[in-house]
Design goal:
globular, alpha/beta, two-stranded antiparallel sheet
Length: 289
Amino acid sequence: MTPPCREGKGLGAQDVELFWRVWDAPSPKASLLLVHGLGEHSGRYDEFARVLAQGGTTVFAFDLRGHGLSPGPRGDADAFPRFLEDLLGMEEEMARETPVGLPRFLMGHSLGGLICIRRLQLFKGPYAGAVISAPWLATALPGWVRRMGRFLGLALPGVPIPAGLKPERLTRDPDMIRAWRQDPLIHTRITGRLFREVERVQAKALVAPLPRDLPLLFLVPGGDRVAQSSVTVGFAQGIVGEGMRVEILEGREHEPLNDLGREEVHRMVLDWLATQVDLGRGDPRASRG
């Protein structure tokens, strides 16, 4: 039986205290740092994290600034690099809270996927691999949302606008839709400032290289109505290096970890992690604390 998650706080950029959760594996063989998407929080990954923990991977996840139980205006950051600085700070926190000497993996969903991609492009790190779920590399939301975001990013950068997030665009599971609507920590806003920052970073991410020797698993929902799947597939197929795997999840909405048939996706990630741990025995990246 997987024990309940542990909770705590650690410092991100500008000495902001970020809330984190850890799901400890009873017999850990690896650890994974998970970064959630826009408007949500780390607690929404409880089911997935428990599956991974039971399978031998300790999961560390935190609430982004402006999200969940972390402070800050909802759906806002003064600059995208704050997210990267926060992630680097949480990597240090994870090193203190999880077993040392195990292979370490990175995973990000949606906005978290974009954050993880940029982190891997810009900084060397201790990761033995990364899982990228429905990364926000290009927006599939209505054009008026994008136009409003660009305008307000110049005229009223701190004003929040609807992010176009509706539960029916995230999952087909009625229970998950109901839980989303009842979750007081979820919000559906993004400031014009952050929207413009995201578009600026998306353009950079699409042309920058990722480490050639880093195994990557891309989870791409075929029915995604939030992030453009075709852009993600093109980006992933252009990555040169070994260990690249792209899973196109036909008919799935934006959150494959919370959609109908998510057990298959959970097992997919679990099996991929197990394979990387087995292949990576003796790899120096797997033993960095």
